[in-house]
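Schema walk-through. Below, the input block comes first and the output block second. Nothing else is stored per chain. Lengths vary across the set, and this one has 504 residues.
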Amino acid sequence: MSDTHLEIERTYDLPDGAALPDLIGVGGILQTDHQEPFDLDATYWDTQRYDLVAARVTVRRRTGGHDAGWHIKRAASDTVRHEQHFPLTEDPDAVPDEVLAALFTERRGRGLRPVVRITTTRTVTRLLDEDGDQVAELADDRVVAERLDDDAPADPRTWREVEVEAVEGVDPQVAEALFAALDGRFAAVGAGPAAVASKLARGLAGVPAPRLRTEEKPHKGTAARALTKRLRKLRGALLGLEARLRSGEAADLAETAETALGIAAVFGSYRPAFAAGAEVDRAAAAADALAAVTARAALAEYLVERLPRASSPAQEALIDSITRERILASTRQRRDDATREVLLSLHEESFLELLDALDDAVERPRPTAWALRDPKQVAQDVSAVEKPRIRDLVRAAVGDDPADEAGDREATERAWHATLRARMAMDVLGDDAFPHALWKRVGTAADVLTERVRSLHALEQLRVQAGIAERGGEGTFGYGVLAGDRVRMAEESYDEAVHALNRV
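--- output ---
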């Protein structure tokens, strides 16, 4: 079992011989309670490539103090961290399975090894208000950090730092106000906010790790700058959604599908912006695959809410409770099955390769000459490829003679997927680069195809459920009412799709 809490703290660099500042009167602090010094011994772990540090995540096994055990810290900012605690295990040379599982995405599925050992002599001062309630805790640390890699220097690094941590449950804005007030008192004794807020980052100084290297952003005004900016935003959104899905928390499946498709749009539609190589091609394919599986789950979730309901009160009155319950049970089962598929996809090697490619594109961009042009020039090249591709797929989806219903659905889904992706690709550079009329028409086609896909899947499920009811001797009238409603919506979306095709 583990527990998680929010850690809000600020670290100050203090000269070794300097006295602590007087903090009475700062931020409601009116009393102090000095504790006896004690020792902490922590070993920090990371992958061979230092994936955790690059993701602003630390994992350590620490002995000593009141919170001995395995700790995972995820930095939300320089002062705010989400800290997860796991029990201390006997074997210091093996990371517990539950810790590895909690770090699966950040470590990219790779194994961990010890990278730094940090020993600390800590003296704690409790900072109290006028009633004796604790406002914050000050930890005066003398630190020794020993790198454990093959290129480690012979002598460990030593320094002194002071951590001030707000009590658990405090409002982050209140904590920031406290820290701002403390800054002046620390400045008066020659101290200031630490240049490096993490003991691990300071202990790793000088480590030869390409994963920790970053490149300058592409120049403003180029398509490459817009692509890098969009991928950074999409990467952050994907990691946040993935973490919620993996932990079992509620996550917006439609947003997940849209995020994955946005990544596919950048890697796919703007493929010449990236260096040649199979890595980017695999990343684009992985993003497309993730978008497809999450789109199916999002569609299943939509049908849970909408399929049992007709579009008018008069039709609603014709649907009996048994029919509605059968449909709900069926749609919920499909949603749960589709969500499991999404979770399985997050454990595949292709997903981890996609994250690696995103890291490289965001942190170490190597834009091609094609991408370093004006966005309007790049947009012309993208339009020349995307317009005929969308037109062909939409034409196949709304053809007069589909081979069968399944073929109709598949063709419509391909057109839907491609049109959504093209709209997202255009959004990267915006309608300042792409003709506004084209941008708007592609968006209209995407919206129309979304409704058509929903209607076709709804009809397929209703027919299956009606067949089951009929074989069981139950009435099928309610299914017919809902199916008729969806047939009307499918026909309307078909006509709109034909119109949209003629305008792309």
